[in-house]
Amino acid sequence: MKEVFKRSLDGFIFTDDLHKDTYNLLILHNRQVVAEHSKSVAEECKTLANKFGINEEAAEIAGLLHDISAIFPFQQRLEISNLLGIQVLKEEEEFPLILHQKISQVMAKEIWNISNEDILSAIGCHTTLKKEYKQLDLLLFVADKVKWDQKGGPPYLEDVVNGLNISLEHGAYAYIKYLMDNKSNLKVVHPWLVDAYNSLSLKLSDIR
Length: 208
Description:
Blueprint: H1 3-8, H2 18-28, H3 32-52, H4 56-65, H5 77-83, H6 90-94, H7 100-110, H8 117-124, H9 135-146, H10 157-164, H11 168-181, H12 191-207
């Protein structure tokens, strides 16, 4: 295990229960809101997996681990990414919060020995999605947005839910379209998000 992770796990006792371990680790680092959010996202992942015929166990694991890097403070994430050898894009350097998806992906692999490429892929793009997405990528991306960790209901929720009545692609597209329509409110526009938007736009235009 990488040294940067060992320091954050010092004194933590694993139980082999992923639900308990992810929750308790976040609580240990005073991330109560993220701990509750991750539980909610994991449940939503199972619900969506059942609806769309995707492996429920894989979906739940992705949901539980997607924000596990929240144990690291915002201001440390750029340094940690560099220590882990993660490729950092210009937009991520400007707004390091986005790096949490990539750090969580590495943590899932290094700490919990997750080898399922679909799970790792979904965790690694759950904030931005990406151009060549998989079904589990879409599922976690949407579940994370439906069960957001802010106060009140998300302003895009109705559009996303309506989209999900058609497909995961429609749900994901509804969310990204909301962001693009309100681009001036974003700290940065991540290139993966733009790529995903273009891919979804093209795919859905072919369906219509």
